User: Fold this.
Amino acid sequence: MNHDHVFPAACMKTMTQHSSLRTKQIIILFLISCGVLLGGYSSAAAEKMLESIKIGSFKEKSRVVLQLSSAGFYEIDNQADQAVLQVRLFDFKLGSVPPRQLVKERLLKEIQVHQEEQFLLVRLSLVTSHYHYRAHLFKSPPMLVIDFTGCPPPVSKGTAEPGRSEEPEPSAADLKLKPQSPEMAGEKSPPVVEAEPEPAVAKAASEKKRHVDVAPLPETSAPNAEKPALPVESSSSPRPGSMVEDTLPDKRESTSQESTSQESGSPEKPLAASGEAGENTASENDLYEQGLSYYLAGELEKAMESFTRLVTLFPHSALVPKALFRYNDALAQQAAGDDKQNLHHLIDNYLKVVRTYPQDSDAPWALLQVGGAYERMGFHYEAEGVYQALAHQYPRSRFAAAAWYEIARINYALKRYRKALHAYRQLTEKYSRRGFSAEAAFYQAHCLYHLGDFAAAMPQYQAALKKFPEYLHTDPQSIYLLGSCYLSLKKYQQARDYLLMMRNLFPDNKFTNLALAKVGDSLLAQGKLVEGIAFLATVVKEYPESDGEILARLAMARLGKENPRLHRRPELKAYVEYLDPQHAYRFIVDNYAKNPLSDVARLRLGRLLYQQHDYAGARHFFDQLLPARVHHEIRSVAFNEMRQVIFDELKADYQQKKYAAMVALQERYGNTFLPRPTGMYPFLWLAEAMRHQGLYAGALKLYASLQGFNPSKEEFLTITWGMASCHLALGEVKDADGLLNPLSMHDLENSWWIKMMLLKADIMIRTGKNREAVKLLGDVGRRLPVGSIPERISLLTMLAEASSNGGKLEAAVTHYREAITLANDHPQLVDMVQRVALVSAMARILFVKGDYQAALAAFRQAALLVEHHDSLAELLYWQSLCYSRLGQKKELDDVIKLLRSRYRNSDWTSLAISNLKDYQWKTGSPNLQ
Assistant:
């Protein structure tokens, strides 16, 4: 079914005019609207886009603009010595909007549009057969722009220009749209591909340029599943019949009833009748043509049925691979959106056929569709792998360049700039004449910029600008990154020129507010503080809730931090709120919490609080930068900053003896920041804190791990003393004694000799050597300085224990009372846990003496100081014993009730209840009777 529409140039509307001596400039806007991906653009929008691409002089140039319904792919064919250029548009159908003449002069004779089987053919008839042409593909609004330049005819027939080959050039690879990062999806973009053919007079055969579009990742889908098949070509690949059934998706049986009367207007061809039982049969060519007609008409189910019959009836036919590939193309059009189940089915079908017929000319095309399907499912790494396979297994395929382009696009979007740079270089080195030249040139510079190699990026930008000046003026991202590159090289005037260009050319583009924020930042870098602050404040007001606003606030906050007195200047009075760094950073964090740029504010705010020694506040904001969603560079910096904060916080807590806070930090951040010792500090501090908090096993393990870090003499004595103390606390007396025996006590300084001798005395007491311990403690007491309060308390405690063990209870109580008094007089040196332990020990001695009233008073005093529930339950148990001995039944019942209500599951509660029953038995309570 063929539709011809001829639009003479005389019927079109005038818009503008340019003239020259050699040729006339003509701009023809041809609108094709089918709404596959994007809605049709209005005439005003199209004219606005045209104005945006009319930059520079068009002398001796003619321009034809084909505005499309979506950026699909196309093929250009110009015949030598003919004033005709043909454009084949794949993925498009003829729309209802007629062409419009924009100038009076006629360089074109006419425009003809034909609907062919697999593409829309646009035929441009020119007034001359001697011309150059250059093609550009725009994305939004989608349009194909072709520039013509006249050239003189050859001197004589058969004589080619120097350096021109008369051999037919190989067909171009599919050229795809400009890569975009995920956050750029949906933005309008500039021309993205171009073809640069030789003059038509120098060619002996047709030249073809094919362009394939894929939507950016990851927000939008990958290459459209509704791409029609490529033109059918013959294939010489082997087609073993044993493999046909395995490669046929959704095989259907073919019966004589399947060929029935055809519907009116259907593209189906009548089948030839055979003489066997009236059964309708058709040749393989008929079945293929029938399926292809159905496919073009959009009757996909019937098309798939015809292809299935062909494969079933003629398994050894040369058309089997084409039928299978076309079957999958129809299946691709049926795949709804991003339905993963359908896409999985489609991928499996394509790969089965590719594995069976790897040498078929459609195999690379199928791999391109597989990669697109993976992208639509969000599997970008798998898609890249398929494109890599295509590029390496079929390097001479017309789709190899498209595969390299996809590799570059995906890696650029995923911010893997080194891989993207390699792929773009492959395009320029191996496929320089395939239409990727402009984009690949600029995006190599973009990759170098993102990698931080500004010195290498600038020459690349300059070379690209020299060769493709029109590309820059239609690409906002390239202008922005070029200006940013100049700014990074501290070439402020050039940076300002390019960045300000954004406001004139692309006032509504997402990069414009960022560019203007960088202009203000460049003014600050040049020392123009007042001008720069005013410019940045203007950006904040003109572009609210934009990335540019956040960058402007960050720049002014940084300036305020670097110059704390700047806000006092009268001319800057109106900008005080912007120059207060803490206020500015908190404003960004509170109002733009989900914006990635707010992470920069969190990082700077954390640093600011750290410098103010607000460690908890700094940790709060660094904590928010540790999840995987945060950019890896910011996360890495925050991780290192957090390490430093924790180190300094542990050091400060150790100096202030906040051991509980240190242990809490270890419990919260130990697995992430302190998984195992990597040095002496802060782990030695942590071991000391854990010992003070009674976590002896953990402290002992941490002490032991520090012995391999070549500790100094002071650190070695600290570790040895700490380990011996932990062993004693755990009842491991022999281990503690084994640590102290090798030490040469006479060589120690007095302070360390006292500490080690106290440990020796403790070991003696625990092994029953009380007299030796008392004698040793007497020697220690004579060498003990008056100001050594903790050591004197330890000495008195050991004397009390030794006296108690020797039956001298009164002396033991005296030593405990002296130790308690000393501890209460110096609470900053003796923590609450140790004071409670001293009072409890004295109370137990009093209980053993039989002074129950004094013991009860001591236990109640200790209960007022205790913080842990288990310790309080123990003290309540001892109180119950005192009450039972004193015969105070009411008070005893009250204590039992308290234990049952608060500490029901405690062992001390069970013991107290047993004590109550024992008391009731002894007193002959009627309850038991």
In short: The radius of gyration is 43 Å. The CA atoms of residues 117 and 296 lie 6 Å apart. Residues 1-59, 93-105, 156-280 have pLDDT under 50 and may be disordered. DSSP finds 37 helices and twelve strands in the chain.
